[in-house]
Amino acid sequence: MKEPLQMPMGTVTNNPPPAGAERGCGAPATAKLWWGLLYAVLILYAVVTFLPFLWAVSTSFKTLQEVSHRPTALIPDQPTLEAYRLIFSRTGLFLRWFFNSAVVTGAVVTLGLLFNSMAGYALARIPFFGRRFWFWFVLASLMVPSQVLIVPKYLIMRDLGGLNTHWGLIVPSAVNATWVFMMRQFFLNFPRELEEAAELDGLNRFQTFVRIVLPLAKPALAAQAMFLFIGAWNEFMWPLVIISEQSMYTLPVGLTAFRSEYYTFWNVVMAASMLFTLPSLILFISFRRYFMEGITLGGIKE
Questions:
Q1: pLDDT value, residue 69
Q2: Are 141 and 43 in the same domain?
Q3: pTM of the prediction?
Q4: pLDDT in tens, 22-73
Q5: Which of 110, 169, 264, 267 is close enough to 83 for a disulfide, judged by CB 3.0 to 4.6 Å?
Q6: Is residue 5 included in any domain, yes or no?
Q7: Are 175 and 288 part of one and the same domain?
Q8: Do 40 and 157 reside in the same domain of the chain?
Q9: Which domain covers residue 267, as residue numbers?
Q10: The pLDDT of residue 292
């Protein structure tokens, strides 16, 4: 009786494994179907999100008569710059509002970068009595809605004479608890060896912070600066509460001046909104990669 033939070890056969042996036969088709549905939902969401912005741009190039008769049309019949000319010719305060927003936003960003970084560095690196208490106090303040603090802040600014002033808009926003926490988390992961080397070179704590720590924290500072800019530039509620003089309006509050009791000049409102949005849009396009870094820089470490 002949023995069955045995394949030598290491011999490679030409017969491929049957289709679907490792994965199910319908797996590739199912995966493609789910990816197709996902892309369809994302595209639909992008279109729905972009349509209001497209309508605003279109309306800013329409005449008042066309806005009244064809308010939902996305393409103007006769594009015109009339609304943009009205902003600068008949509304002399627009440039003043732009100046107010620029001053307040610039001061908030500058002071916020300084104070938030210093507070975060102190909570992360400098041992002092009650450090843990103040850290938890900062965390607790994040849970308080900003609307709850409007009345106390208003009363304080009124007693200090901060109504209808630039500094009344700046001071309450000079420190941001969210970014104190984020910078603290960033500095916890900062290499101690660099600070120890600076100490051996004769630098004190403040010199180490300014010369060594801050230059190496540029990604975190850039992300923080952009978020502070967006928040201060778009702030509406606080300026509306403490500003009553039109010459001291910021742009978000000034846009309401184009509305009347009986009628709203939507083409002028949309033109002003486009000019108002332009700085934020340019900033986002130029530095969009920092937004993701700003969201992920504060890894939890305790």
A1: 82
A2: no
A3: 0.77
A4: 455 556 788 888 898 999 999 999 988 888 889 888 988 988 888 888 877 8
A5: 267
A6: no
A7: yes
A8: no
A9: 86-191+220-296
A10: 63
